[in-house]
């Protein structure tokens, strides 16, 4: 798994603000994030890079030598990203993407694609799978990045990779689930009331599953948060589950139960004059995002 997938734009902004000498409280006020959220993002960056970002400075803290180097790189990355935003810069392409995918690894891919196609200005529009596919069909988007459904398997699209999934809960909940029957004591959390994640279970297993209740929370990221808060069990793509599993915040449940792997594709209008840009972006995403065996 490429470590850049664990980062998002806020991480670059946090590093930049730390180099300015701002406190965690001031950074939170600037970005609209809580102090615990800032601290968690710093800890995640340290795990991603395998280096300490902060070190003690008397009674306070300061950027470590490694942190200073990463902060300078973050400032350069933010500067490059800002350069592709002005409306007068190149051709604008509207790209829809599932929100949790956009937050995790699209940003570094866009920066890398810019070096090959400096005349393209991407306009990223996160949304649900249903929303972005509808907007593509109605011409409101030039491309979308999402998982394929059975009906879309033969449609034109650029393969990005395979999205694997894990069935998880907090350790205390996980230890109480020994067999399928134990699921009747917990709530199943999904992003939509149609329970799309349930389709990842083998059909013969799905037919036998019973839960105490179900809860739709709007996004896969919200599923991750709700599960980590001990509110129930859920299915997460491995790029969201990996850091939580590493921290011991969650554990896999019923590990012998194999979930289906879904294909992520980049769909764009066949007649698009920017197909070379999309091909480049798809190639970069394959390298950054989801590993293929």
Describe this structure in words.
- By secondary structure, this protein is of the alpha/beta class.
- It folds into 3 domains: 3-81, Winged helix-like DNA-binding domain superfamily/Winged helix DNA-binding domain (Arc Repressor Mutant, subunit A, Orthogonal Bundle), CATH 1.10.10.10; 86-160 and 262-288, Periplasmic binding protein-like II (D-Maltodextrin-Binding Protein, domain 2, 3-Layer(aba) Sandwich), CATH 3.40.190.10; 165-252, Periplasmic binding protein-like II (D-Maltodextrin-Binding Protein, domain 2, 3-Layer(aba) Sandwich), CATH 3.40.190.
- Helix content is 41%, strand content 21%.
- The chain contains 11 helices and 12 strands.
- It has a 5-stranded mixed beta sheet, sandwiched between helices. Strands 9-8-10-7-11 form a 5-stranded mixed beta sheet.
- Helix 8 (203-206) links the parallel strand 8 and strand 9 (213-216).
- The model is unreliable at 85-89 and 150-154 (pLDDT under 50).
């Amino acid at each position: 798994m490429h470590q850049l997938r664990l980062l998002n734009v806020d991480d670059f902004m946090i590093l930049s603000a730390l180099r300015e000498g701002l406190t965690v409280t001031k950074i939170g006020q600037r970005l609209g994030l809580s102090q615990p959220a800032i601290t968690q993002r710093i800890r995640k960056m340290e795990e991603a890079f395998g280096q300490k970002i902060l070190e003690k400075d008397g009674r306070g803290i300061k950027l470590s030598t490694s942190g200073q180097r990463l902060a300078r790189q973050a400032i350069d990355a933010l500067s490059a990203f800002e350069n592709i935003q002005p409306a007068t810069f190149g051709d604008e392409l509207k790209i829809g993407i599932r929100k949790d995918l956009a937050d995790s690894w699209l940003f570094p891919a866009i920066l890398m694609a810019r070096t090959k196609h400096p005349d393209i200005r991407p306009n990223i529009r996160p949304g649900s799978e249903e929303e972005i596919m509808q907007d593509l069909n109605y011409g409101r988007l030039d491309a979308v990045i999402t998982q394929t459904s059975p009906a879309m398997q033969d449609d034109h699209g650029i393969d990005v990779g395979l999205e694997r999934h894990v069935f998880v809960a907090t350790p205390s909940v996980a230890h109480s689930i020994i067999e399928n029957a134990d699921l009747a004591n917990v709530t199943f959390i999904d992003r939509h009331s149609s329970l799309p994640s349930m389709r990842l279970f083998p059909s013969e297993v799905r037919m036998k599953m019973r839960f105490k209740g179900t809860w739709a929370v709007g996004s896969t990221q919200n599923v991750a948060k709700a599960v980590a808060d001990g509110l129930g069990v859920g299915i997460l793509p491995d790029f969201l589950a990996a850091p939580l599993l590493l921290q011991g915040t969650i554990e896999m449940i019923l590990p012998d139960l194999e979930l289906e792997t879904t294909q992520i594709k980049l769909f764009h209008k066949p007649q698009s004059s920017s197909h070379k840009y999309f091909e480049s972006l798809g190639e970069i995403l394959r390298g950054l995002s989801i590993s293929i065996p």
